[in-house]
Structures
1.
Amino acid sequence: MRIELRWHGRGGQGAVTAAELLAIAAIEEGLFAQAFPEFGTERRGAPVVAYNRVADHPVYEREPVLNPDYVIVLDPSLPPSIYMSGLKREGGLIVNTKKSPRELADELKAQGFEPPAIVATVDATEIALRNLRVPIVNTAMLGAFVRVSGVVSIETVEKVVADRFSDRPHLVQPNVKAVREAYESVNVEKLLVARA
C-alpha cells in the first residue's frame, strides 16, 4: 500500500500542519509516512502546497508529488489549473466548498478538467468558524480526508490533533470537534471512470 497526497491552500490556513498531522497519525498506526511543504512567497494568503506519502514500507523520495492519489483543497478560490494538475483519474478530490460533489464535478468539466473517480466536498470554513471562531480549516479538511480515504482511523487523528494542541488547551476540543464534524458531514460522490 502506498498513497501520495497533495494539499493546496493559502498561507494561514494550515495546509502544512494538516500534512504533518496526517504523517504522525500514519506513523502511530505503524505505517511509514512523510510530510513536507513547498513554499513560494511566505506570506499570509499566498498559495501553499504540502505533500504526504504514506505506505506500508519505507519511503525515501523527497520530490514533490506530481501524480497524487488524492488532492485536498483548503481554499475554494484557488483555480483548478493549480490543483487538478497530475491528479490520477482513479484518485480523489476533496474540496472545502458549500457545493455538492456533483456541482463541483460539473464545474470542473465545464472548465475542461476531467474529475477523478471520487469527488468530495465539505463546508470546512463553516465548521472551522463554528468551532474555532476563525477560518482555519486544516483540521476539518483532515477529518474529511480520513473519511474519504480510510488511510488511518479517525480516532488516531483525533488523538494526534489533541496532542498537537496540548500546550494550548483551549484549542484541543474545538479542533477535535472540527475533525469529527467534517468526518461525519463530508459529501462523497463516486464517479465512473472510463478505462482506456
2.
Amino acid sequence: MHDALLDIIGFMSRPEPDVELMSAMAMPLERALLPLLVRIDRRGPIGVVELADLVGRDYTTVSRQVARLDELGLVVRRAGTRDKRVREAEVTELGREMADAIDRMREELVGELMADWTNAERRDLARLLKRMAADMNEWVVRRKLEDAE
C-alpha cells in the first residue's frame, strides 16, 4: 500500500498534468501556486503556517506564494478570525472559479485514467480514500494535541 500511495502522490506531483492544465486554461499562474490555491479554496480561511504544513513547504516560501496569489486577485489576506495576529488567506470569487476549473480538469484526467473501472469500483475507491484521509487528519490532530500537553 505504501508503494501505491507514493506512486499516486508522485503522479499528482508531476509537473506535466499541471502544465497541460495551465496551457489548456491559459492561466496566468505559476505551477507552484496551483496546490496552494486549491488548498485555500478547500480549507480557507487558512493561516500561512497551517497551509505550509498541509503542502509540506517552508512557511516563508508559502507566505511569498500566497502574496503572489493575492496580487493576482485569487485570494485575499486578512486578520484571523480566532487570532488577529495570524493572517489568513481566503479565495476570492475569481480564485474559486479558477479552483473549480482546476478541479474539473483534474477530474477529467482521473476519469481518463479510470475509464475501464466500473462505477462500483470508483465508488469503493472514493469511499476508502475518504476514510483513509479522515483517519490521517485525525492522527495529525491527536499529535498536535499531544505535543501541546
3.
Amino acid sequence: MIRCEIRGENIEVTDAIRNHIEEKVGKLERYFTNAPNTHAHVNIKTYSNKKAKVEITIPMKDLTLRAEERHDDLYAAVDLVIDKLERQIRKHKTKINRKFREKNPEQEFFAALEANANGKPEEDVDEGMDIVRSKQFQLKPMDSEEAVLQMNMLGHDFFIFNDRETEGTSIVYKRNDGKYGLIETN
C-alpha cells in the first residue's frame, strides 16, 4: 500500500485535494506485485500567478520515482505528474525485463501489464535510451563563475569543468527558476 505524505506550501491541503491525490497515487499500486510500506512524498506549492507545482517522490528499495509538474489547475498538475510516474515505471519495467529476461527473479517486482487505461495492448516504450552521439573533450581548470560564463556563451544548460580550487570534476547547470546550480564530485 502506498501512503501519501502531503505537504502544502502557500496552500491549505483540503480533504478534496487529499482524496484526489491519494486516489491517483493509489492507482500506481497496480504496477507492483509487492510494494509494502511505501510512502509517496507529495509537495504542493502555489505561486502568486495562480500556477501550481506538484512534486511526487516515491522512494523504494531498488527504485526512486520522482516527477514534478506546473499547471494553472492543481488537479490537472496531479494528473500530469501521475502520467509521468507511470511512464517511468513502464520504462523501468522494460529495462528490467530486457536485462534479466528469464534469469533473475527481480523481474517479478513489477506486475504484468496486459492493457493500459484505454484497454489497448501495452507497448514496451524505451524513450531516449539510445546514445546517438558521443563527444570527447579536455576539462579545463576554472572556477564556477567562469564555468557559468562558458556555459552561457555556448548556449548549453550544463557545463563540466575541473574546479581550480578542489581539483575535482564539477558541473554547473541552469535551473528551471533561471538560477544556477553546482554539482561537485569527490
